[in-house]
Amino acid sequence: MKIVLLGGGSGGHFFPLIAVADALRKAAEEQRIVTLDLTLMGEKPFDVEILREEEISFEEIPAGKIRRYFSLLNISDSIKTIRGIFRALWRFTLSPPDLVFSKGGYDSFPALVASRIFRIPVIVHESDAVPGMVNAWAAKFARRIGISFPETAAHFPQDKVALTGNPIRRNILGGSHDEALETFNLETGVPTVLVFGGSQGAQKINDAVMLALLDLVEFAQIIHITGAAHIETTKAEAGIVLEKSIHKGRYHPYAFLAPAQLRNAAFIGDVAVSRAGAGSIFEIAAWRLPAILIPLSLAAQDHQRENAYSYARTGAAEVLEETNLTPHVLISEIRKLTGDQKRRDDMKRAAGSFARIDAADKIAREILHLGLHE
Question: Tens of pLDDT along the chain (374 residues)?
């Protein structure tokens, strides 16, 4: 069976696709499907090494960004998208897939056009509370539509929609208290705060942490995922800020964390401070980790804000608007949660009720069912 995966330009799309790919291999083995050929199509893979490890081939398909506003770049990007459509048509002529699974985003548009022309079955999954432009369009011809947030159902045909949650990688679950202490050289008896800004990091969150850092380490230890582009400047700034602090060892900056590190950081964490991408929210929920969400103010369709408030309504998170992200407010919110065990226990229960750890398995079973019976 040949399956094409679409939407790998960012970690928010890429990692759920990897989770679904793992689940597909497991389901295919259970159903005794001998061959399973997985191909990611898009402009550029988020992580080539992971694709190699997962034995997923990559097919480069040009794709221009889709903008809702006037820009001269729309001209060149439109040409790029047209090139991508013709390349996808050619690839599907040579080797048509049995099914296409799309996470959306402009990366997926050319191959979705080709899928519609060739009438290849399509399953769409929408991560965010508010659908993106490409998924909203693809819903017209998709056979099935998976959604992560209940509110999203109102945007799609009801006979196609299923609430699946957002797929997460199994290898980021678990962890051990002792492993976490050893991995990050943490102190016992001191609250641990996990800070991250999505797959690329978040400069505004990094800046706020730096301004608050001297006060934060007085009562907490920080595991800070800065993003690869920001690690060196963050380390340098932290060195200056904490130069005379007796608690400088409580700050632990990393460009990124491998799955084994990430699951241990989440296991020992008391509070997460994070952007509000769907991928981050569903990982935090799976970890049952109380959260302070800081939605990106410039996100398309304001989707991060919608995600954040949808999740916060369950009681599992607090929302801190980016316009209110001052050092004083950040310190106050973190101190309030780290000092309130009952509130954190309530948030953990709410997160556990929201989490859908089996999302990838559900999607994989539907992909194989549709691919075998169409």
Answer: 999 999 867 788 999 999 999 999 999 999 888 789 999 999 888 889 999 999 999 999 998 776 666 676 778 788 999 999 999 999 999 999 999 999 998 899 999 999 999 999 999 999 999 999 999 999 999 999 999 999 999 999 999 999 999 999 999 999 999 999 999 999 999 999 999 986 555 889 999 999 999 999 999 999 999 988 899 999 999 999 999 999 999 999 999 999 999 999 999 999 999 999 999 999 999 999 999 999 988 766 688 999 999 999 999 999 999 999 999 999 999 999 999 999 999 999 999 999 999 999 999 999 999 988 76
Q: Which residues contact 355 (CB under 8 A, 6 or more apart)?
A: 165, 282, 285, 286, 288
Virtual CA dihedral for 356, 360, 363, 365, nearest 10 degrees? -110
Q: Is 193 left (phi over 0), alpha (psi -120 to 50) or beta?
A: beta
Domain 2-168+357-373 fold: Rossmann fold (3.40.50)
Q: Measured between alpha carbons, how far is 291 from 269 in angstroms, rounded to an integer?
A: 10
What DSSP letter does each residue of 336-359 carry, written as one string?
A: HHHT-HHHHHHHHHHHHHH--TTH
Tell me the CATH number for domain 171-354: 3.40.50.2000
Q: What is the DSSP letter of 42?
A: E
Query: Where along the chain do its domains lie?
Result: 2-168+357-373, 171-354
Confirm if 22 and 54 have CB atoms less than 8 A apart.
Answer: yes
Cβ-based neighbours of 71, under 8 Å, separated by 6 or more = none
Identical topology for domains 2-168+357-373 and 171-354: yes
The residues with which 40 forms a beta bridge, in sequence order, are 5, 58
Q: Which amino acid is at 72?
A: L
Q: What pTM was computed for the model?
A: 0.92
Strand, helix or coil for residue 125:
strand
Question: Which pair of tokens denotes residue 46?
Answer: 């988020």
Considering only CA atoms, which of 100, 108, 102, 122 is closest in space to residue 65? 108
